[in-house]
């Protein structure tokens, strides 16, 4: 982390049991059971949590992008994020697809919003160059 960064918020969790455990935030707002993808467990998994966080953050980044482009985002916009857990010769890896719906927004404007959001969203920045990411306008 750079010395000149101003911390705006710190999310804190305590996790036990790994993929078959539980995770709770320090403020108690998040309290989830975890289970391995595809198992009979009743909890969520890290890939779903990552997808939810990235989707929410990306929508916020689209809001900033739309303002800078003097565009208005539709109230019914949505981001459906898919995070794949993959195996390869080096072990495990992630890949992701963000399927963005901006009903009523001209395709060229929607593409500009999505491209700008992908440059500023912290999740997009964290994954850039590290995992395969596809952003689709649907």
TrEMBL record:
Protein name listed in UniProt: Peroxiredoxin
UniProt source species: Rhizobium grahamii
Pfam families the record matches: OsmC (PF02566)
InterPro entries assigned: KH_dom-like_a/b (IPR015946), OHR (IPR019953), OsmC/Ohr_fam (IPR003718), OsmC/Ohrsf (IPR036102)
Span list, region Disordered: 1-45
Similarity-based family: Belongs to the OsmC/Ohr family.
Polar residues composition-biased segments: 1-16
GO biological process, one term: response to oxidative stress
């Amino acid at each position: 982390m750079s010395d000149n960064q101003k911390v705006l918020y710190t999310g804190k969790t305590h996790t036990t049991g790994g993929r078959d455990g539980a995770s709770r935030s320090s403020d108690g707002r998040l309290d989830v059971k975890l289970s391995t993808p595809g198992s009979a467990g009743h909890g969520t998994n890290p890939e779903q949590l990552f997808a939810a966080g990235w989707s929410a953050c990306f929508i916020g980044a689209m809001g900033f992008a739309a303002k800078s482009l003097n565009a208005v985002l539709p109230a019914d916009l949505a981001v459906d994020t898919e995070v794949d857990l993959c195996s390869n010769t080096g072990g495990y890896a992630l890949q992701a697809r963000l399927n963005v719906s901006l009903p009523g927004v001209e395709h060229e404007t929607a593409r500009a919003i999505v491209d700008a959001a992908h440059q500023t969203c912290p999740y997009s920045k964290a994954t850039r160059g590290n995992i395969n990411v596809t952003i689709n306008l649907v």
